[in-house]
Amino acid sequence: MDSSMPSTPHASAYPIGKPGQVWGEEEKSLWLNKQVIQRSYAEQVLALILDPASISANTADPMETTATQSNAHPEITSALELVHYNTLAYNTLHQGASDYPVYLFKSRHWDETKPNVLITGGVHGYETSGVQGAIRFLRTKAQHYCQHANLIIVPCLSPWGYETINRWNPHAIDPNRSFVHDTAPHDTAMTQAKAQASKVQLSDVQEAHALMAALGELAVNFSLHIDLHETTDSDNAEFRPALAARDGTSYDNWDIPDGFYLVGDTLKPQAEFQKAVINAVNAITHIAPAGEHARLIGVPIAQFGVINYPTKALGLCAGMTDATYCTTTEVYPDSPLVDDENCILAQVAAITGALDYVIKNR
After folding, report:
1. Which residues of 331-357 are buried (b: 16+ CB within 10 A; e: fewer)?
2. Which residues are within 8 A (CB) of 19 and not within 5 positions of it... i.e. 6 or more apart?
3. Contact criterion met (CB below 8 Å) for 3 and 10
4. Considering only CA atoms, which of 82, 122, 111 is closest in space to residue 228?
5. C or N terminus of the chain, fewer CB within 10 Å?
């Protein structure tokens, strides 16, 4: 998540590019060449959502599984249908990368009397609990909630980001500023001239536009969209300096909130809904207290543990639908008070808390 509220600006000291100059293709290529595969999407994600028996006998790599070979993992309820909605073609773009199949799960028997719910994880691939929280919900809670709602669950939108522990995609673009229907990602506060110069092809933001296309074909009107994220210490250490270097601007160090918080929508804050989600998560982990001037990441709090963003205007994943209720979770995995399991459980609690509220208040 990003703050639009500046504090003390810092000139970018990032090792790529020159201060005050927007990156060109040379700088983006230098950045891409510095990225290293650090973990396996196949082993840590696909192995948890695909049936091992459906993976091709000719390869031990689930990445090579085709849509026709894929069935859902047996621990995922049969009430959900596995859909291979795209393959992100990065094999020739970055050494060690693959062509990544991406999947969603949807209710097999759609019931027009039930609310339609979208759950997304891994828009930022480095935010681990968002991915693993979506998977944990799939394997432990989805069967129950399929009785009460039509579900679409997307565990990991950004496999390359997951493997390289990265916020951006290989084109140095933030997918979570790219959920728009034009070709200009909204992941920067550049001037209009710079924004015009930065226009990219839809194929450069495959993570966002592959899902948007898939959902467009389904033509679903959602009651709820919950998007699973983290705020991490690496936001200050790496990603904000990189953003400033890329865009030729200064950057502001955040006071990283110690605890869980939510980001609602400025135009439809749904305060009681956000409160219900916070209460559900508070039973699992601690909620971030407001910092100086009653703010979180520089944004005034709307209520305990909640800030609001203009999600559509910023091209955020949470704003890509017209859902009545939408929220973005923010887990803080670097807190000394939590571990990986607690972070995953917090994401699951947020999902179930959101679902319980929407089901009860139809």
Report:
1. bbbebeebeeebbbbbbbbbbbbbbeb
2. 11, 12, 245, 248
3. no
4. 122
5. C
Distance CA 308, CA 300 (A): 8
Q: Which domains does the chain have, with CATH numbers?
A: 9-35+72-360 (3.40.630.10)
pTM for this predicted structure: 0.91
Helix (H) or strand (E) holding 263: strand 261-265
- What is residue 95's DSSP assignment? T
Are β-strands 306-309 and 325-331 bridged in parallel, bridged antiparallel, or unpaired? unpaired
pLDDT for 55: 64
Q: What is the pLDDT of residues 176-229, one digit of tens each?
A: 999 997 544 455 433 333 343 344 455 579 999 999 999 999 999 999 999 999
Each residue's pLDDT tens digit, 291-318: 889 999 999 999 999 999 999 999 999 9
d(CA 128, CA 137): 14
Q: Which residue has the tokens 């601007």?
A: 249
Nearest to 225 by CA among 152, 129, 305, 136: 152
69, 56 Cβ separation under 8 angstroms: yes
Question: What is the C-alpha to C-alpha distance for residues 130 and 350, in angstroms, rounded to an integer?
Answer: 11
Q: Where are the alpha helices (DSSP H) in the chain?
A: 25-34, 41, 47-49, 128-140, 142-145, 159-164, 192-197, 206-218, 234, 240-247, 271-282, 340-360
Both tokens assigned to 319: 């704003």
Tokens of 111: 């019931």
